[in-house]
Amino acid sequence: METPVSTGATASDDLPFDVFARACPSRETLEHVTGRWGGLTLGALHEGPRRFNELRRRVDGVSEKMLSQTLHALERDGLVHREAQATNPPRVDYELTPMGHQVAERLLTLIHFLEDGMPQVLAARQTYDEARGAL
């Protein structure tokens, strides 16, 4: 069992980790998962295993360097499995681990919710911008 992270007395003291605590290691993983490239990479891998360049094309706008860093972080967190095959040229495939699938499914629920709600978001932005422009 993991050692609890002390955050002061709260109703959730029985939880082993508390992402709201500065020193909690779950905060780093949350950042990897919810950052722009992490969330999109997990979503793309939920569609099935992919090679690096396939992922780069699917996650439009990500640089090679950022995708590489993202995949390393997600692999280190146990969400992505990297498999290198000894072929010529070398072939490397990336796929979600069981925990990665669970995380990706939750992210995709949020992604689809946001996509469906974009008309409301765009209207709110327009209202906000018009009100601020009138000042």
From TrEMBL:
InterPro entries per UniProt: HTH_HxlR, WH-like_DNA-bd_sf, WH_DNA-bd_sf
Keyword Transcription regulation applies: yes
Record-annotated HTH hxlR-type domain positions: 24-122
Keywords in alphabetical order: DNA-binding, Transcription, Transcription regulation
Superkingdom, taxonomy of origin: Bacteria
Record keyword DNA-binding present: yes
Protein name: Transcriptional regulator
Origin organism lineage: Bacteria, Bacillati, Actinomycetota, Actinomycetes, Kitasatosporales
